[in-house]
Amino acid sequence: MTTLTTPITQTLDARGLVCPMPTVRLGQAIRKLSLGDIVEVWTDDPGSQANMAAWTKNTGHQLVASALEGTVYKYQVRRMR
To answer: What pLDDT was estimated at residue 2?
Structure first.
Protein backbone atom coordinates (compact mmCIF):
# COMPACT_ATOMS: atom_id res chain seq x y z
CA MET A 1 0.00 0.00 0.00
CA THR A 2 1.17 3.52 -0.75
CA THR A 3 0.69 6.85 0.96
CA LEU A 4 -2.61 8.65 0.36
CA THR A 5 -2.44 11.94 -1.52
CA THR A 6 -4.55 15.06 -1.91
CA PRO A 7 -6.70 16.73 -3.14
CA ILE A 8 -9.67 14.42 -3.37
CA THR A 9 -12.52 15.43 -5.67
CA GLN A 10 -15.01 12.88 -4.33
CA THR A 11 -15.17 10.24 -1.60
CA LEU A 12 -17.07 7.03 -2.28
CA ASP A 13 -18.07 5.01 0.79
CA ALA A 14 -18.44 1.39 -0.33
CA ARG A 15 -18.09 -0.17 3.12
CA GLY A 16 -20.39 -3.15 3.57
CA LEU A 17 -20.33 -3.98 -0.15
CA VAL A 18 -18.51 -7.02 -1.53
CA CYS A 19 -16.94 -7.71 -4.90
CA PRO A 20 -17.72 -6.51 -7.49
CA MET A 21 -19.86 -3.69 -6.07
CA PRO A 22 -17.05 -1.35 -4.87
CA THR A 23 -15.60 -1.27 -8.40
CA VAL A 24 -19.05 -1.02 -9.98
CA ARG A 25 -19.78 2.02 -7.84
CA LEU A 26 -16.34 3.43 -8.65
CA GLY A 27 -17.09 3.09 -12.36
CA GLN A 28 -20.35 4.98 -11.94
CA ALA A 29 -18.70 7.73 -9.90
CA ILE A 30 -15.62 8.24 -12.05
CA ARG A 31 -17.69 8.88 -15.19
CA LYS A 32 -19.08 12.01 -13.51
CA LEU A 33 -15.62 13.45 -12.77
CA SER A 34 -13.36 15.57 -14.97
CA LEU A 35 -10.09 14.23 -16.35
CA GLY A 36 -7.41 14.33 -13.67
CA ASP A 37 -9.89 14.34 -10.77
CA ILE A 38 -9.35 11.85 -7.94
CA VAL A 39 -11.99 9.74 -6.24
CA GLU A 40 -11.20 8.07 -2.92
CA VAL A 41 -12.94 4.74 -2.36
CA TRP A 42 -13.46 3.30 1.12
CA THR A 43 -14.20 -0.42 1.41
CA ASP A 44 -13.92 -3.12 4.04
CA ASP A 45 -13.71 -5.93 1.46
CA PRO A 46 -10.24 -7.58 1.66
CA GLY A 47 -10.66 -8.76 -1.94
CA SER A 48 -10.61 -5.14 -3.03
CA GLN A 49 -6.80 -5.12 -3.17
CA ALA A 50 -6.69 -7.38 -6.22
CA ASN A 51 -9.95 -6.04 -7.64
CA MET A 52 -8.90 -2.39 -7.53
CA ALA A 53 -5.54 -3.09 -9.20
CA ALA A 54 -7.23 -5.11 -11.95
CA TRP A 55 -10.02 -2.55 -12.44
CA THR A 56 -7.63 0.37 -12.88
CA LYS A 57 -5.42 -1.62 -15.26
CA ASN A 58 -8.41 -2.74 -17.35
CA THR A 59 -10.11 0.67 -17.50
CA GLY A 60 -7.04 2.85 -18.04
CA HIS A 61 -7.46 4.90 -14.87
CA GLN A 62 -4.61 5.41 -12.40
CA LEU A 63 -4.42 3.92 -8.92
CA VAL A 64 -2.65 6.85 -7.27
CA ALA A 65 -2.48 5.57 -3.70
CA SER A 66 -3.85 2.99 -1.32
CA ALA A 67 -3.84 2.49 2.42
CA LEU A 68 -5.29 0.25 5.10
CA GLU A 69 -6.67 2.20 8.05
CA GLY A 70 -7.95 -0.22 10.66
CA THR A 71 -10.32 -2.44 8.71
CA VAL A 72 -10.94 0.06 5.92
CA TYR A 73 -9.08 -0.07 2.63
CA LYS A 74 -8.77 3.36 1.02
CA TYR A 75 -7.93 3.77 -2.66
CA GLN A 76 -7.33 6.97 -4.59
CA VAL A 77 -8.05 6.66 -8.29
CA ARG A 78 -7.39 9.37 -10.89
CA ARG A 79 -9.66 9.64 -13.93
CA MET A 80 -7.39 9.29 -16.95
CA ARG A 81 -9.81 9.03 -19.86
So the answer is: 65
Catalytic residue among 19, 21, 33, 67: 19
Q: What is the pTM (predicted TM-score) of this model?
A: 0.92
Please give the span between the terminal C-alpha atoms of the chain, in angstroms, as a whole number. Answer: 24
**10-78 has which fold?**
Translation Initiation Factor IF3 (3.30.110)
Instruction: Assess whether 19 carries a catalytic annotation.
Output: yes
Task: Break the chain into its structural domains and give their ranges.
Answer: 10-78
Is the separation of the CB atoms in 1 and 66 below 8 Å?
yes
Q: Max alpha carbon distance in the chain (Å)?
A: 32
